[in-house]
Write a structure and sequence with these properties.
Low-confidence stretches: none
Oligomer: single chain
Mean pLDDT: 91
Order of helices and strands: EEHEHEHEHEHEEEHHHHHHHEEEH
Strand order of the largest sheet: 1-2-9-6-5-3-4
Largest sheet: 7 strands, mixed
Strand content: 15-25%
Length: about 350
């Protein structure tokens, strides 16, 4: 399957075991130097595939340790130094080969080195395939705050080969599934019902459907000033949970919990007729996704003081009305405290 993102002039290819397709695409720019940025685990698993894809090209490989801690200012500086020392210029290309951490820092480097060089995204996790590889958001963590420094910058090409998913464990598959559930709550009841009822997942179908939902929100709002903000469903609480857990809960798991809490709060506030948080919880449990996390509200509010969605001391939160429809609300931190407490109620009380 192919998606043409005309607004930002790039193509997304979704395919299976398609290394030759990527190899042929890269060979159209044989005069360019390539820097493949990846992490050490991904490279250990896929070194043969990477070397096959890149074998006829002038390429370098930059590896760092896996995990959120590598999305740092230190690594940002090291990669820029590597590019400079190897005389990369504006005609050269960065390839982000890995998950969301690799993609985020690679895109940020590409957006800033020489004020912008081309980069290609080759996501290897379900989360990066349906989320971070498209939409143009890049960044690094700073002072233990997620994506505190970053840019909006789009790839030249996104190559999604879902054969990479075959090496992922359940926790990493679920990291992406939780975001797919978020998309379904945002806009697609049919997708939610498919996830709830299916026996085995059709990855091509759910990747394609998820990307089209995301791109619909990104279209005409690439700088996150309007409708794109609805993609932050579950993120206000979720990012706080992710930080409080010291990233023991991954991004998707945290956002999934945040989505459940917002659904529960929405019902208690009278915005939704049904308490569909129960339906979310039962379906999440089918896949082994976490559905709650114990935290102190004061601690999470302290983290959320740095949230990028704050404007004039108000924070924009997304509240689901039903599965497939949401609304947004600008609130004070006192109101946010109340909403968090409404969402925190222990599931055993149901």
């Amino acid at each position: 399957m192919k998606i043409e993102v005309k607004e930002n002039n790039y193509t997304i290819d979704i395919d299976y075991k398609s290394d030759l397709k990527l190899k042929n695409y890269l060979n159209k720019n044989r005069d360019a130097k390539y820097l493949v940025i990846t992490d050490k685990i991904v490279f250990d698993i896929y070194s043969e595939r990477i070397n096959y894809i890149m074998e006829d090209l002038n390429f370098f490989i930059y590896k760092f340790s896996p995990g959120e801690n590598s999305k740092s200012m230190e690594n940002f500086i090291k990669i820029n130094k590597f590019l400079s020392e190897n005389n990369f210029n504006r005609g050269d290309i960065i390839i982000a080969f890995g998950g969301g951490v690799v993609g985020d820092i690679s895109g940020f480097v590409a957006s800033t080195y020489l004020r912008g060089i081309n980069f290609i995204s080759v996501p290897t996790t379900l989360l990066s395939m349906i989320d971070s590889s498209v939409g143009g958001k890049n960044g690094i963590n700073f002072l233990n705050l997620k994506n505190q420094i970053g840019s909006f910058y789009f790839p030249q090409y996104v190559h999604i080969d879902y054969s990479f998913l075959e090496t992922l464990d359940n926790k990493n598959i679920n990291n992406g599934l939780a975001e797919i559930f978020k998309y379904s709550v945002l806009k697609d009841r049919e997708l939610f019902d498919y996830l709830k009822d299916c026996g085995s997942l059709d990855y091509e179908k759910i990747i394609y459907r998820s990307l089209n939902i995301k791109l619909d929100f990104v279209r005409d709002d690439e700088k996150d000033k309007g409708k794109r903000q609805r993609l932050n469903l579950g993120h206000t609480i979720g990012h706080g949970i992710e930080s409080l857990s010291n990233y023991n809960l991954n991004h998707g798991e945290s956002i999934g919990i945040g989505t459940i809490y917002m659904a529960r709060a929405s019902y208690k506030m009278g915005l939704s007729e049904d308490d569909f948080s129960k339906e979310l919880i039962s379906t999440f449990k089918k896949y082994g996704l976490p559905t709650q996390y114990e935290f102190n509200t004061d601690e999470i509010l302290k983290i959320l003081k740095h949230d990028k969605k704050i404007n004039k001391n108000l924070i924009n939160i997304i509240l689901p009305i039903k599965i497939g429809e949401v609304t947004n609300k600008k609130i004070s931190f006192d109101e946010l405290r109340e909403i968090i407490e409404l969402g925190k109620e222990n599931e055993s009380s149901y």
